[in-house]
C-alpha cells in the first residue's frame, strides 16, 4: 500500500515540482494564510535537520505537500511516515533518515500550533514531543557531562552546563527573560538582547542530544509572542549557520585572541526578524580566520561530534 502511495502522492496537489526543486518556497509567498504558515513550518522543520547533519527523504517531502494542501492531517502524516519506515527500514546504522523525517514532521506540527508558554516545562515538553521513540531520554534532563567537537572551533568544544545544575540553570535563564522589559529599547538593542538570551539558553544544553532543534522551536514560538511574524526562509536555509553562531557566542580562547561574540547571531536575527539580507556564510564564523570568501569547504551536513564525559 505505502510503496504504491509513495509513487502516487508525488504531484497529487495542484502544483507539480521537479525532484531538485524546493516545493516549499512558493508556499511561503502563498496568499492563503493556512498554506503559507504550513509551508513555512514544513520548510523550517526540514531545514533544521541540518543542525545535526541529517537529511529527510523524498517521501517526507511528498507527505508534507499533501498536508499543506489539506489532503491529510498531521496525525495522518505521522502515521504514513511510521508505516513507510517500517516497510523501508534503514540498512545502515548511521542512516538517520527516519529520525530526520519523524522529527521534521513533529516540528512542523508544533510550529503550526499557536499554543505556547514561556516556561521550563514547555521547553522539556518540546524535546519530549520531538524525540519520543527516537531517544530514550526524550524530555529528560541529562545526567552526565558532555563535550562536542565543533568544526567552527577547529575541533574544540563549548563548555556546557554542569549536569548537577541543569534544572536550576534552565529555571533561572527563563525567569530572568520573563522579568526583562523590552519597553523603550531600540531594535538594535532588542536584537542584541534576544541573541544573548537564546545563546545562554542553548549553552545550558539541557539534553544529551537534540538541543539545537528543541531550542530553535522554543525560540521561534517565543518570538511569535513578542509580535514577530516568522514566515520567511531564514531558518530553513541557514540552520547550520544558526548553530555555529550559537557556538561562537559561547566560546572563549583569550590566549589566542578569540572572544565569545553574538555578532554572527545578531546578523541571523536581523535577517529573520527584520527581513534584512546579510550574507550568512559558515566559513566566516571559523575561528582560524583563514577561510577566504572564495573558498567553499565541503562542510555541509557536518555534525558536531558529541562525547559524554563520565
Per-chain topology:
Elements: H1 2-8, H2 25-28, H3 33-47, H4 58-68, H5 74-87, H6 97-112, H7 120-131, E1 145-149, H8 166-179, H9 187-204, H10 211-225, H11 234-248, H12 263-274, E2 305-309
Antiparallel strand pairs: 1-2
Brief summary of the model shown:
The protein is mainly alpha-helical. It contains 12 helices and 2 strands.
What key attributes describe this structure?
disordered N terminus, 3% strand, mainly alpha, two-stranded antiparallel sheet
- Helix segment tally: 12
Task: Name the strands of the widest sheet in spatial order.
Answer: 1-2
- Please report which band the strand proportion falls in: under 5%, 5-15%, 15-25%, 25-35%, 35-45% or over 45%: under 5%
Overall mean pLDDT stands at 88
Q: What is the N-to-C succession of helices and strands?
A: HHHHHHHEHHHHHE
The major beta sheet can be summarized as: 2 strands, antiparallel
Percent of residues in helices comes to 40-55%
Tell me the count of domains. 2
Kindly report the CATH topology of the largest domain: Fic-like fold
CATH class of the largest domain: Mainly Alpha
The span between the termini is: 47 Å
Total count of strands: 2
Shape: globular
* CATH homology superfamily of the largest domain: Fido-like domain
CATH architecture of the largest domain: Orthogonal Bundle
Low-confidence stretches: 1-14, 291-301, 305-310
Radius of gyration: 19 Å
Quaternary status of these chains?
single chain
Find the structural class using helix and strand composition.
mainly alpha
